[in-house]
Amino acid sequence: MIPALATLLLFQLFGEVAVLLTGAPVPGPVVGLSLLLAALALRPAWLDAIKPTAQGLLQHLSLLFVPAGVGVMQHLQRLGDEALAIGVALVVSTLVGLAVSACTMVWLMRRQNRRAEASR
C-alpha cells in the first residue's frame, strides 16, 4: 500500500512540477493524473499494484470534503455578500456544461452512425 500511495503522490508531484515549469492553466493534480494514465497505458501491470490503494482512497473520498466545508463556514458572510454572482456562475456553468455534453453526444452518435453505415 505504501509504494502505491507513494506512486500516486509522485505523479501528483510530477504534475505540479510540470505546471510550475510550463505555466499551464491546469491544476497540477490533473496533469499528474494524465501522466499516471499515460504510464498505466504503457505499463498495464502497474494497475494491479495501484488499484487497491486507489479504491481505498475513493471509498473515503467524502472525508476530503471536510476541509472545504470548514472553509465555507469560515467565509459564510462573504458567500452571502456574493450570492448573486455565485448563483449566476453556477447556473451559467451548468447550462454550458449541459450544452457541451449534448453537442458532444450528438457528434459522437453521428460519427458512430457514419461508421456503422460505412461498414455495411
From TrEMBL:
Membrane topology: Multi-pass membrane protein
InterPro entries referenced in this protein's UniProt entry, alphabetically: LrgA/CidA (IPR005538)
Principal subcellular localisation of the protein: membrane
Transmembrane segments: 57-77, 83-108
PANTHER family on file: HOLIN-LIKE PROTEIN CIDA, HOLIN-LIKE PROTEIN CIDA-RELATED
Name under which the protein is recorded: CidA/LrgA family protein
Compartments in which it is found: Cell membrane
Top-level lineage group: Bacteria
Keywords of the record: Cell membrane, Membrane, Transmembrane, Transmembrane helix
Any one Pfam family match given in the protein's UniProt record, by short name: LrgA
GO cellular component: plasma membrane
